[in-house]
Amino acid sequence: MSMGELVLNNNVKPKKKDMEAFWENVIRLYKVNLQLRKKLVIYTVIAGIVLSFLSCIFWILSSKDIYSADGFPNVGGVVIFIAILAIVCTEQNIFDNDEISMLPGNVASRVLSRIMCDLSMIIQAAICDAAIHLASLIICFVLKNLGVVNIAAIMFDWKGFLCKLVYAAALCVAVYMLFAIIYGLLARFGIIRVLIVTGVLIVTVSIYVSANTSRVKAILSDISGFLSKIGAYNNILLVLAVIIVMSAFVWLISKSVHEWKKEDKRYIIVGLLIAYYIIIPVTLFLYWFPAITDDMYDGSGYTLEKDIKEGKVLYKDDIISVGKVSAAELNKSYTNTKQIGGETLEDMGMSIYFCEYNDAKRGGLIPADTILADGQMYIRTIASNEKYNDKYIYQNFIDSVKFTIDNGEYNLSYDKKIVLVDNYMGIFDIIVMGDDQPYFSYDLSGYSTTYIVYRANDIKDKDNLMDIGGDLRMYLP
Amino acid sequence: MGEYAITVKDMTKRYRKKGQPAIDDLTLSLHSNQIIGLIGTNGSGKTTFMKICAGELSAAGELSVLGGDVTRNMGIRTEVLYSTYALPLENYKVSRIVNIYDTAYPNFDREFADKLLKLFQIPDREAKGLSQGTKSMLFLICALAARAKVTMLDEPFIGIDIKKRKRAYEILLRDYMEYPRTFLISSHNLKELEHLLSEMVLIEDGKLIFYKDMDEVRQMLFRADGANEAVGMYLDRQDVIYHSFGELGSFLIARGNMDCPMAKELKREGLKISNVSPEDAVVYLTANREEDLECLWEN
To answer: If you ran DSSP here, which 8-state letter would residue A417 be given?
Structure first.
């Protein structure tokens, strides 16, 4: 009778038949793990659904109050967040999986089946999350059609949505892996040793940093400079760096566990790394095929006219006749809380500048050939020209902006409609909302500005004009 | 299946590098399709031996289970079952535990398991809420229904009342007859179990004392009772492994059956010769000598 080596005999390659039996065993243990974690899955999904729909209901209720309405009902990510939390909290036995230690299997099949089970839980959570998000989207469509909430447009991108879904799942895998490694280290070296080594490292680094502050700052500055130089891809490089460090940790842990056979280690390492490396293509895909195109407009007033000509910014011009302008009235309008829903315009996040006609022309805020007649004002509103699926996100906002004078009060108003841009999990997209009156969601801050250009000759009380230096003379109440 | 279900050669297992070995240079071949008792005192290495044979622990030496390497060949591993009275599945409901076994073992007989659960009136509750006897019975049922070619049961009857225990013995024996396979059972209650066993392994301090057919075990030792002087005359014989002197009489235990030359000689000298039961044999072969205990009461 042939005798199998009980001690490690790493030179013997498993037969093909053995490999088949191994994978069959992995599948069996995977099913067992699914059964063991069935309760966890059910609780996670129930908690996620309840929280998501509570969040959705809250959004619907708050949407009726135009001043506290937010963007898209952001229910995305709740289930997947709870799932990863639950998985990480129960992950400490990943390397021994003692609950199934008496069932047929070895270290490799137990660890692999556990990883497969946890990953499938993450995938299930992601699918559940997506379903809830899509349900909220349907609710938004219904609300739009019923007229419950004034929604101008709902911007949704399938490609971006799926990408973000996969990306979120991949990030969960990254978190999962990180904790697997931490638990591995704790299991291998014990919590006391790990804490001591971590403490010593922190103290050493702290002492070094405090003794070499300028040098450390210089190094960090160099790194930061390098990352900004390579632009949008720095995230990928960071992810790659983390992966390399984690891979090294996984390798070290597997090397130090003497009970594991060489084949076992190979399976485990490959399993862990495959799970981790899926982040890379997804990250790249998100960067290469973003739903939102064009960078956010971050030009200054000094280059506005040039930027408009180059198509870098959305804009709308109006010339209105107002007669003699009172600086004091402008000031009053700017701070009049009645018109702006209880908050000052500054609080709303929209930038409003009152500029003198000649200064505005010199500064490139309005076309150089603009001619304003006596008592006329030039109203120029700009917004970012970001596109979502080739549609301007701020078009509705720009179209609806109006500057009027009622009973001597200057009003800046907009339609009452919300533009919803899918912000699933808040990844890479932005929340946009243009709504009632001279009121904006803070999310518009920095992306929209209205320049109200007046003629100095039309100002009745010129003493209130304030010189802010440079080419522009602006009245800033 | 070959002649042997499990073969070990020069097996040694230490939990600590320089510690006492739990299994000490053990060489043994267990026959296929037998119900084998694995007997030994606490800490003698029974559980360690079973876990090694189930591929749960590694050890130095050579091991062959069902003709292959149980640690590497998962096909063999699924034909090997190790079960005990307390398994780390107690947080789950009975039906879930049975499902887990059903998933893990390809030959699991679900119908048989359900019938046994009903027969032994095991409620479908979380296992941790069950009595020790019910838990032991649950895991025994799962182990039997798995129909693994090598089924290792480590103290499977702990906590089970005598009525259910007797019924469990019957079921185990009947199921073995229906589906012949190798059982390796460790138990402290050898007296009850001996009628179930066809063979027996005795280990002590990780070393093999013997591996014999039960009939051989029953014939392995004999007891000779008599007066102190009569018994005392034979204490220097090599085959005598134990003796006891008392006020009412003394006895000795010696190797051999009742028909061996020494037994006949003692009988001729007027000593009363009787068989030593397998349970007593285990005690005499592994127990301290009487004088070793005397130190306990010395001032």
So the answer is: P
* pLDDT value at A265 more than 60: no
CA distance B68 to A3: 7
CATH 3.40.50 holds for B221-275: no
Q: Which CATH code fits B4-216?
A: 3.40.50.300
pLDDT surpasses 60 at A469: no
Contact of B227 with chain A, judged by CB distance below 8 Å, is answered with no
Could you give the residue ranges of the DSSP H alpha helices within A67-157? 78-89, 107-146
Strand partners, B226: B250
The terminus-to-terminus CA distance of chain B in angstroms comes to: 59
How sure is the predictor about B224, in pLDDT bands with cuts at 50, 70 and 90?
A: very high
Residue B179: pLDDT band by 50, 70, 90 thresholds?
very high
A→B contacts (Cβ < 8 Å), by residue, are: 1-8, 14, 17-18, 20-22, 24-25, 28-29, 31-32, 35-36, 38, 98-106, 109, 259, 261, 263
For chain B, what are the domain ranges? 4-216, 221-275
B100 contacts A35? CB cut-off 8 A: yes
pLDDT digits (tens, 9 = 90+) for B68-92: 888 878 888 889 999 988 888 888 8
Chain B stretch 87-116, residues whose beta carbon is closer than 8 A to a beta carbon of chain A: 87-89, 92, 96, 99-101, 103-106
Nearest to B75 among A6, A8, A17 (CB): A17
Q: Give the contacts of B83 (CB within 8 A, at least 6 positions apart).
A: A102, B139, B140, B142, B143, B151, B152, B153, B154, B156
pLDDT tens-place string over residues A200-241:
888 888 888 888 888 888 887 877 776 665 544 445 556 566
Q: What's the pLDDT band for B269 if we cut at 50, 70, 90? A: confident
Residue pair B137/B120 in contact by the 8 Å Cβ criterion:
yes
For the segment B8-19, what is each residue's pLDDT rounded down to a tens digit? Answer: 999 999 888 778
* Closest residue on chain A to B95 (Cα): A35
Q: Cα–Cα distances in Å, from A64 out to A69, A290, A400?
A: 7, 32, 20
Residue among A376, A346, A349, A373 at smallest CA distance from A448:
A349
